[in-house]
Structure formats: structure tokens, C-alpha cells
Amino acid sequence: AAANAAANNNALQSQIYNSNKALITPYVDRGNTAADALQGFLGLGGDPAKTQAAFQNYLNSTGYQFEKTQGLDAVNQSAASHGLYNSGAALKALDTYGTGLADTYGQQYVDNLNTVANRGVNAAGTLTGAGQTYANQVGSNNAGAANVAANAGLAAANQTTGLIGNALSAFGNFRGQSSYSGGGNAFASGTGGGGDIPRSGG
Asked: What is the pLDDT of residue 186?
């Protein structure tokens, strides 16, 4: 019964853990993806292809290209309307605008990746905790079943030892009685051999 209860409890714990794992794993995976993208964007890891891919993702995923186009068009129109389209001031304004925009969106992109990566780290920690809880509970279930089995074994052994002791005690008593009866038999044997028993009227 204890073994069956432990097995049922273990199955339930396994079901709960697998359910939690299924819910948490996507966040872990997304966190890993974000961490890889962040590493590539920052030029870490020594893989130029990943760095280029991360940079292109940055350009395409944050609205940077749209706002850049809108802003440059506005600067160009303003410069053209004042006859300054090819002037140094217009070029400087374009450069300043592009640099500021890149800085703003670059930091925003890094922050977004950090947020997703940290969410993955937290999810991994949660999954690790769930795994530890699962392991502890299963270990407790199995230990409980083993203790019950061990106690049952000890109880059976004690009972058997008690029965053996009682049997030996009974045998000892029986043997003692047999020895006493044996003396009587010897006496009877003696009387049968020589007529030592006094006879009445003789």
C-alpha cells in the first residue's frame, strides 16, 4: 500500500512538473534568443554574421527606418525650402538627426532585448525551482515508502523472533517434563523386572 501510494504521488508530481515545464519553457527559449541577439548587437562572441544579423534586426524591428525616413525627409524639405539643400548646415543637421535617432533607438533596442533576456532568466530560475521541488517530493515519497517497508520488515522479524522464542521456551518446558516422565518410566521398568512393588496381603 505504501509503495502504491508513493508511485501514485510520484506520478502526480511528475504530471505537475511537466505541466509547469511546458508553460515556462517558451519564456526560457525566448530569453535565450534575446540574449543571443543582444550579444550579436553588442558585437560580442566574435561572429560577424551574427552581429550583422542582429544589426539588421535592430533596423527592421524598432521603427527606426520609418522614423529616419520621415525625419530626413523633413530636414531635406526644410533645407530645400530655404535654398540650403546642399549646404554644410543641412548636411550637419542630417548627420546630427541620424546620429541622435540611432542612439535613441539603439538604447531602446538594447533595453527591449534585456527585458526579454531577463524574463528568460527568471523563467529558468522558476523551472529550476520547480525541478528541485519535484525531486524533493519524489525523494520524500520514496523514503516514506521505504521506511514503511523497513518497519514492516522489522515488525515481521520481531514477530518471527518472538514466535521462535516462544517455541524454544515451549520445547524447553516439554523437554523438562519429558525428563521427569522418563524417570517414572524407568521406575516402571524396574518394577516390571523384579517384583519390587510391595504386594498387599503378602
From this structure: 45
